[in-house]
Automatic annotation (TrEMBL):
Pfam families: PC-Esterase, PMR5N. GO terms for cellular component: membrane. Keywords: Membrane, Signal-anchor, Transmembrane, Transmembrane helix. It is a single-pass membrane protein. This is Trichome birefringence-like N-terminal domain-containing protein. It comes from Cinchona calisaya. Residues 126-409 form the Trichome birefringence-like C-terminal domain. It is found in: Membrane.
Length: 422
């Protein structure tokens, strides 16, 4: 193989082969393991937060000049710099909330270089992550991450970034499918995850009972999910990989009986418009903040960065250095759709454009040190990385920590700008 792939071949790369579908099950399988029912959520909340009659005082946070993103600096443009003295920001074994899927070292990954890179924006510096400052910003608030298993990685990363400063017995992780909720008692705050792989409704919404191959999206239906999002103060949305299975996807729009095959680009646009309508109708921009995270890149074909190869992200230990590297796994039509839909919104939804910075990180995926269908790979499977390497999900600590560092920088700036609701 050469890097000069026929156009048809390149175009087909946008869609992820059948074998990979098995990695997507994870997001679902993982939220399963609990039997608490939805209507118990309220009681759960009460029991953890009730009783504190004296309301803790909000402490002012000091945000120094060098913690502020300079005007006009695009934090998403920059380079990865080797920094093994400050990174990783936490250790795999020190965070009890990581699922087995992402603990690559524990699962046998021989190199840990992927944990030692700092993101350096071109025009400014990112503030150092300060868990106590973030928790103070989150006091009395609910932060919710909504999306697929990539988004679950961001949720877990955030939990690990803050959890070490909270004493034992004052923090709780609850699994209430399709949610995971991390409660922080002292701050009367929660960091939550909500499983909605297409954002809109679909037959893949059930945490356990769905198939990945067979998918059907209800492009104009969102209410079942969105009613669960309405109380959140800060919302972060993401949805990509589940769409990218085939060029066409079965979906309904209008009549629920009328299932048709839609072009994925068209379907994604219709779903985003349904979401946008909900945002406009239900989000109170004075009280809530909304973010949208752009697509998380995949590294399924290494001929894209290493001419003449025919593998994937397996055995990659270093980032790509070529400036502005962009693989075929990051679909430009989808990116364009996100841009269009957000551009037309009257509510300010901010973009966390993590695609380019993550594109460089072919080394950050779980590869053969993750899971497939909820189980660690067997020795036989590990010896066949071409079939079994997962080049979609990320190890933790790792790349999603940097997404959160940037997200933190934006929240800190908001706080200083005094636009955060008190
Ligand atoms: C950090 O990286 C430098 C340069 O590669 C290396 O010489 C040093 O041994 C590393 N330190 C640790 C603690 O790994
Ligand atoms: C906890 O936060 C909620 C808002 O999310 C607020 O209504 C409630 O009064 C707070 N509880 C305490 C004890 O401060
Ligand atoms: C799983 O879903 C299918 C179709 O939606 C349904 O027929 C079946 O009864 C469900 N099984 C369980 C165990 O809920
Ligand atoms: C849509 O559903 C039909 C009937 O189940 C199936 O034959 C077809 O392959 C599906 N199309 C896609 C793109 O998955
Ligand atoms: C889907 O739509 C996009 C953008 O409109 C177009 O470029 C692409 O060729 C279409 N794909 C199919 C399979 O029709
Ligand atoms: C991984 O890559 C190194 C070179 O970077 C090579 O020496 C080694 O044989 C590779 N390992 C496997 C299992 O392919
Ligand atoms: C995100 O950034 C990339 C370049 O890094 C750009 O091409 C893309 O259009 C941006 N996405 C959106 C939705 O603005
Ligand atoms: C904060 O205020 C500065 C200057 O007024 C502005 O440039 C910046 O965009 C604001 N940042 C946020 C996150 O709102």
């Amino acid at each position: 193989m050469t890097t000069q792939q026929p156009t048809q071949y390149r175009r087909m790369q946008f869609f992820f082969p059948v074998a990979l579908a098995s990695f997507l099950v994870l997001g679902a399988v993982r939220v399963v393991l609990d039997s608490i029912k939805n209507n118990e959520l309220y009681f759960l909340w009460q029991s953890h937060f009730a009783g504190s009659t004296t309301r803790p005082r909000r402490l002012p946070i000091v945000v120094s000049e060098n913690e502020v993103i300079e005007d006009g600096c695009n934090v998403f443009e920059g380079k990865w710099k080797w920094d093994n003295s400050s990174y990783p920001l936490y250790r795999e074994e020190s965070c009890p909330y990581l699922v087995k899927q992402v603990t690559c070292l524990k699962n046998g990954r021989p190199d840990s270089f992927y944990q030692n890179w700092r993101w350096q924006p071109n025009g400014c510096n990112l503030p150092r992550f300060d868990a106590l400052k973030l928790l103070e910003i989150l006091r009395d608030k609910r932060l919710m991450f909504i999306g697929d298993s990539i988004q679950r990685g961001m949720f877990e990363s955030m939990v690990c970034l803050v959890q070490s400063v909270i004493p034992q017995g004052k923090k709780f992780l609850k699994r209430i499918p399709p949610r995971k909720i991390f409660l922080i008692q002292e701050f009367n705050a929660s960091i939550e995850y909500y499983w909605a792989p297409f954002i809109v409704e679909s037959i893949s919404d059930h945490a356990t009972n769905h198939t990945v191959m067979k998918r059907m999206v209800k492009l104009d239906s969102i209410a079942k999910h969105s009613q669960e999002w309405e109380g959140a103060d800060i919302l972060v949305f993401e949805s990509y990989v589940w769409w990218m299975y085939k060029p066409l996807i079965n979906a309904t729009y209008g009549s629920p009986e009328d299932v048709r095959e839609y072009n994925v680009t068209t379907a994604y646009k219709l779903a985003m418009e349904t979401w946008a309508n909900w945002i406009e109708a239900r989000i109170n921009p004075h009280k809530q903040k909304v973010f949208f995270m752009t697509l998380s890149p995949t590294h399924l074909w290494n001929w894209e960065w290493k001419a003449g190869s025919d593998g994937n992200c397996f055995n990659e230990s270093y980032p790509i250095e070529r400036p502005s590297y962009w693989g075929t796994g990051s679909n430009l039509d989808i990116m364009g759709t996100v841009k269009d839909v957000l551009g037309k919104l009257k509510v300010n939804v901010r973009l966390l454009n993590i695609t380019q910075l993550s594109e460089y990180r072919k080394d950050g995926h779980t590869s053969i040190f993750g899971e497939r269908k909820g189980k660690l790979l067997t020795k036989e499977q590990r010896s066949d990385p071409k079939t079994y390497a997962d080049c979609i999900h990320w190890c933790l600590p790792g790349i999603p920590d940097v997404w959160n560092e940037i997200f933190y920088a934006v929240l800190l700036q908001d706080y200083r700008n005094n636009s955060l609701i008190v």
